[in-house]
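Record pair follows.
FIRST:
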Amino acid sequence: MKQLFSPFIRSTLLGTIALVAFTCFGWCLAHNKFSSNTWTLPTSYLEAEYADFIGTAAFYKALSDGEITHFGEKSVDSLGAPNEANWNQYPTPDEALAFLCQTLVGLFGLFPGYNMSVLVGHIAASVTFFLVARIGFRVHALWAFIGGLAFGLAPYQFAQQPHHLACQYIWYLP
């Protein structure tokens, strides 16, 4: 009987699926996100070192509400600072990430969608490392898995979330 996939492809696919599960579990364990109620809370909020989170959350909320658009004017009347919040002074180079976060926030609400955006960054880093090691360098599946898990749950990732979502997306580094 002919096998559908070679052992290399089969171990790579199974490793990828397992890595997504382990990365999700590790992130949920680190942030205690095991119930639907905990997903409605941000991972941090008022700590001084994470103060940028409030502005970042407001940006993604304004995107999901349609108050601002991608590649367009970024002025939000509803924030009234004093007349409007004007975010046109600095470029927004991460429009693809903003679209992902806008979609998740629009579907699930502000904090659950934002938490999912953070988790997707961890998963992307883990899986990319694993696939580059496995396919690009032909590393044994176990070592590629361990490296992917370590990269996806690296302290740097946790240090940059949730206040600097763009800095937390490091999937392209491997």
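SECOND:
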Amino acid sequence: MKNLIKKYSNKNDNILDVGCGEGYLTRMIFNLKRKAYGCDISPEMITAAKKQNEKIDYWIQDIEQKNSNFKKPKFKIIISNLVFTYLKNTNQTLKNIYNYLDQDGILIIAIPHPCFYHQENYLWFMDETINQYHFGNYFNEKTFIKEIFNGFKTHYIHRKLETYFSTFIKNNFNLISFLEPKPKKVSTNILKRVNQIPNIAFFVLQKKTV
């Protein structure tokens, strides 16, 4: 994500982190000398983010809801890191993002790779030898209940890549690039897995003038 932000933006450009959580990526944007902004649906996360850096403009927002009174500046780049798989209303989300972007602005979306996301009984997963992978029904778009941490559970929506691409086109975004990066530094216990299949997929999109 850092390299993409550096590639598509310049110093002092406005960049919004949608679904920023406690702000770790927003702070990275700030440290790159960009004008960093972050929004999240969780008041607790926004409170935590503000405590980390009071110079960053954070606010509470449900990005899936229409917001016709948005009063922030237009953004050169909007990023969404590991958020879209939790969103039910991706069409309204993309409409909001479209309206928030500068002309020809860039949207960068990272999601767990829908072909290879690692979870037992979900598409691809390793056996106990860490040698073989098993494939589930990729074409079955559905919602899973996923445990995040310490027993906290939330929904996770599996969508085909085709669905993502179609939704982007429908909402007036052009695809600049689609990336399946291979991590350069990983712990030894997951090295074999990430050397064979991509964990994360990146979409780099540009706002289309209509």
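COMMENT: The CA atoms of residues 126 and 133 lie 5 Å apart.
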